[in-house]
């Protein structure tokens, strides 16, 4: 869970700080530092609103628990979080190239019109989106207990790393492109999303919400149990300990969605998820290349037309 919390917090905090940093840096460069306080004001309100959203979520989750229906909420959170995490990776891959220009363009409009309220609202919404996503993802990886993720070392470490990266980035001392950062962390985020998706299916099968053609395709408990409890049970039943500890298994389960006894549906869902990601990436690359080719053709036609006129 801590590794998941670290990666999620790193991504979300990094995105929020990058956007705020781009805005404040632009305001300073254009001799408008007086507006920076309004940007930070909006960001501060967003942090408070995100904390409020976390408390509200816990109230709702507790209400579901009182009715004995929290398991259905957990399943929904896992599946929706899987989709949102995947969408987050694709969104950042698409907007990381033009993020700076887009943010500066909006700030230029606000400065020109003197729209201070617009600055506050814009920075508020930008940071709030990251905050709400963090709350939702923390709920997914902790089974609804957001406090566990916040109190652990993962979330704090992720926030500190994000702040450090942003500091060196805006100081101009970091030479590694942020695009590379997002690609590397994006791979791990996709693995977490796949794990949540499969875990959602597993829980649905555990409560008999859906059935299974083959409940256990194989059993690797002797090699790597997915939880310390499974490790203890295997040792009790066989008298021998598994090759690897259940603590290792729970780490891989949290990060990769590992299961020592997966059903056929879990395996199909896991493989199918990555097949879908592969197809989406290929379609995106083809669309990008198509647009690029069209622009090149248009530029070539304009250049030829200009030469013919001469």
Strand and helix map with partners:
Blueprint: H1 2-29, H2 36-66, H3 70-95, H4 99-113, H5 116-142, H6 146-151, H7 153-171, H8 178-206, H9 228-238, H10 246-256, H11 264-309
Helix pairs in contact: 1-2, 1-4, 1-5, 1-7, 1-8, 2-5, 3-5, 3-8, 8-10, 8-11, 9-10
Description:
- This protein has 310 residues and is an all-alpha fold.
- It has a domain at 2-209.
- Helices cover 80% and strands 0% of the residues.
- It has 11 helices and no strands.
- It has helices spanning 2-29, 36-66, 70-95, 99-113, 116-142, 146-151, 153-171, 178-206, 228-238, 246-256, 264-309.
- The protein is elongated and about 75 Å long.
- The termini are far apart.
- 32% of the residues are buried.
The largest β sheet comes out as: none
Strand content: under 5%
Rg over alpha carbons: 24 Å
What is the structural class?
mainly alpha
The general outline is elongated
If helices are DSSP runs of H or I spanning 4 or more residues, what is the number of helices?
11
Share in helix: over 70%
Beta strands, count: 0
Provide mean pLDDT, rounded: 80
Which stretches are low in confidence, meaning pLDDT under 50 for 5 or more residues running?
none
Following the backbone from N to C, one meets helices and strands in this order, namely HHHHHHHHHHH
Please give the alpha-carbon distance between the first and last residues.
67 Å
